[in-house]
Please model this.
Amino acid sequence: MVLEMPPELVQRARTLAQGGPWEPPEALDAATIVLLRDGTAGLEVLLMRRPDSMAFAPGMHVFPGGRVDLAQDGEPTISGTVPAGAWTDPALARALIVAGIRETFEEAGVLLAVDRSGRPAVPDDRWARDRQASETAGGFPSVLRRRRLHIQADLLVPIAHWITPEIETRRFDTRFLAAALPAGQDVDAHITETDSAHWLAPVDALAQYRAGGLAMLPPTVAVLVDLAGQRSVGDALHWARAREVVPLLPRAQMSGDDLTWVLVHGYTGEVLSATSQPSGSEERGAR
Model:
């Protein structure tokens, strides 16, 4: 996969690769949920467009999610098997799962929580009020308690793990988790954090991206490429459970006069792959 970047990042990467000064900011823990559903023609995935006014990734089509808020994301009850081991430590894994679910409820109006019998949450006349309440400090745990819901970790499957390149001014250590759209729920995009929401087959989303119709960051494109071969939600989740997820960090280096993007293991620095970016590619303005 060619990791194409906006012009200002390409220039900064070139400066850094040549020994220029830069202190990378800390990558904040974050989670994003890859919502899946079975459409009439097969697997579909939810993409939401970020408004042009957003500080991070304006205009990009992304999966719902956001950064961890330990003050409330470590509190809710979680049952089932929480991902651990190489993916992350257990305590952080719990907070990441909650953060992804909380942000998905706020941004998309989808609540990935179940009752004591394992039935998914059902929208009612308090849904919009609870969604708004979840955006306040400590609000999301209160919503779950009031509705007598808990989070079933087995319903979410790690699918990818990307760390924002060190050349960015805002960086995130983001875990991607796949989940099926709960029965009886649908998407209602948050008007301040997204200006549109689309259910698309991965192959169609990729075709629009390559034609210049959908702007997306490389991790989003990579996840869609992986999902393009899956026929249904069941197939996609089965595939995700069988794969090994490692943290991926794009890092820039010079190869002669050209800029090469090296994909490294985000924690060990082991080189996993590299793609050459020809000189002058920054003029294309590709994302």
Remarks:
- The helical segments are 7-17, 70-73, 90-108, 127-133, 139-147, 202-210, 218-227, 233-242.
